[in-house]
Design goal:
The complex is a heterodimer of chains A (134) and B (140). In chain A, 31% of the residues lie in helices and 26% in strands. Chain A contains 3 helices and 8 strands; from the N terminus they run E-H-E-H-E-E-E-E-H-E-E. The longest helix of chain A has 21 residues, at 91-111. Chain B has 140 residues and is mainly alpha-helical. Classes of the chains: A alpha+beta (134), B mainly alpha (140). The A-B interface holds A 1-3, 5-12, 18-23, 25, 89-91, 94-95, 98-99, 101-102, 105-106, 118-119, 121-132 and B 14-26, 28, 30-32, 34-41, 52-53, 86, 89-90, 93, 97-98, 108.
Chain lengths: 134, 140
């Protein structure tokens, strides 16, 4: 049987603020539309996502473009290079910021002509298949 | 002749459990609803779908109450010896640590107990809805 883990107040030990975040929100910024055409606007969306999540959660990070693939309704595979923008949440601000995040996600999906848009929260993966009207 | 199996000797560092105040957890269901998303990429089999972290946290909270610490579960009476690998026990400890918030500290054993209960419930429900009688009822 494993022994009891040692307890550590990591925030105090490192001089960090109390009330640490345990849940991460991440969204995928695509570089191609649902038919595989390069959008050319990925950087703009990445910076807007970074600014939005920083305003809501106090900070955000973007990965470099990654290798990705998406299976379209017609069965075609679209190879793309999404950027993941992620942020650990501050509960109250995050709950209040959800309408802004929704507006951003659905606008990005419409304007970059996506078949779907994805986000993850707390280790779970979600897809948005129907977009709000602008 | 099959090759001899190689067993790795393990000497692990002790686990560290982080204590301190955390942000109040937000339900993923609330976020999904607010953003218009639907869950995808389920990691568990259909029969185990109800065993999500949220369900685990809720069931643990209901059974542990709000008294904090590690009281025993009121609705358990047996202490069975269940064979478990080190890796599974480590995973249970990580789950327990991840579910911890101030005043709520489930142990790995309590997480295992709740997971087992939820799994049994899910498998029984799955069997009930997938039995030949149920299938016949759906057809008629």
């Amino acid at each position: 049987m494993a022994e009891e883990p040692e307890e550590l107040d990591l925030a105090a030990a490192l001089g960090a603020e109390a009330g640490y975040s345990t849940q991460c929100f991440a969204l995928y910024v695509p570089n191609r539309d649902r038919e595989g055409a390069e959008s050319g606007t990925q950087h703009t969306w990445v910076f807007e996502a970074l600014r939005l999540l920083a305003e809501v959660n106090g900070g955000a990070t973007a990965t470099p473009p990654l290798e990705g693939a998406w299976l379209s309704d017609t069965g075609a595979i679209v190879i793309e290079n999404p950027v993941i923008v992620y942020s650990f949440v501050r509960t109250e601000a995050f709950l209040q910021g959800l309408p802004r995040i929704r507006e951003f996600l659905h606008r990005m999906a419409r304007e970059t002509r996506q078949g779907e848009i994805a986000f993850t929260f707390d280790g779970q993966f979600f897809r948005i298949l129907q977009f709000d009207n602008g | 002749m099959s090759p001899a199996r190689i067993k790795t000797a393990r000497s692990r560092q002790g686990m560290v459990r982080i204590r301190g105040k955390t942000q109040t957890p937000v339900s993923p269901e609330v976020v999904a609803l607010a953003l218009g998303g639907t869950p995808a990429g389920r990691a568990l089999g259909e029969a185990l779908d109800p065993v999500t972290l949220m369900a685990l946290r809720q069931e643990l909270a209901a059974r542990l109450g709000s008294s904090g610490g590690r009281p025993g579960f009121a609705d358990t009476s047996k202490r069975a010896k269940i064979p478990l690998s080190d890796a599974d026990w480590d995973a249970l400890e990580r789950l327990a640590a991840g579910l911890e918030v101030p005043g709520f500290r489930p142990s790995a054993g309590q997480v295992a107990s709740v997971l087992l209960k939820l799994s049994i419930r899910a498998v029984e429900a799955h069997r009930a809805t997938d039995s030949p009688v149920s299938r016949e009822r759906r057809r008629s």
